[in-house]
Amino acid sequence: MRHLTRGLIATGTLLLCHCGTMGSGNMGGPTLEERKAAIASEPTGDFFYGRRYYIEKTRFWGYVRRPRQPWSKAKLVIFREDKKRSPDRLSEVGPPGQRYGFDQNYDYKLNGYFTGRDAYDPNSNQFLPEFMITGYQVIDRDPGWLFRPDDRYDPYRITVYPR
């Protein structure tokens, strides 16, 4: 009986753990094949692609990758704003659409470079690569999922990460 109970608990725990990652996620977007084709046909140059990833109270900016590189190779970064302020450098208590983080999940074309240093984000307790932003352009305000079609966004904890 003890083994049966342990087995049922283990099975139930496993199912509960997988329920949050099964299904289509909550970010929408293209099929996996469409995303791969879009990345393969991207223009290249001396710039980066960035995806804003806003989690309340954190100070990282989002994910940055080189053109034609899959998002799975992107790095979660902290912006250094000595030369240009980040696109959403606004008050955190402004009206909706006009506050810090309003651009959650926007795709950007970014100009800048990795400084070679890491910066500490105390609210997520991570040392992350520092990216010196020198310019940006919004590419897409609703690109959908980032790493996989089953990505689930939660504004209060990190849930979208390369796997």
What does this structure look like?
This protein is of the alpha+beta class and 163 residues long. 17% of the residues lie in helices and 28% in strands. Strands 1-2-3-5-4 form a 5-stranded mixed beta barrel. A hairpin with a 4-residue loop joins strand 4 (107-121) and strand 5. The protein starts with a helix and ends in a 23-residue tail after the last strand.
What's the structural blueprint in terms of helices and strands?
Blueprint: H1 2-19, H2 32-40, E1 48-52, E2 62-65, E3 75-80, E4 107-121, E5 126-140
Parallel strand pairs: 3-5
Antiparallel strand pairs: 1-2, 1-4, 2-3, 4-5
Keywords:
163 residues; alpha+beta; 5-stranded mixed barrel; 2 helices; 5 strands; 28% strand; disordered N terminus
Helix content: 10-25%
Q: What is the number of helical segments per DSSP (H or I, 4+ residues)?
A: 2
Task: Give the H and E element order.
Answer: HHEEEEE
Please give the domain count. Answer: 1
Uncertain segments = 1-22
- Strand tally: 5
Give the overall average pLDDT: 86
The helix-and-strand class reads: alpha+beta
Percent range for β-strand residues: 25-35%
Radius of gyration: 18 Å
> Given the C-alpha coordinates, what overall shape results?
globular
Please report the distance between the alpha carbons of the first and last residues: 38 Å
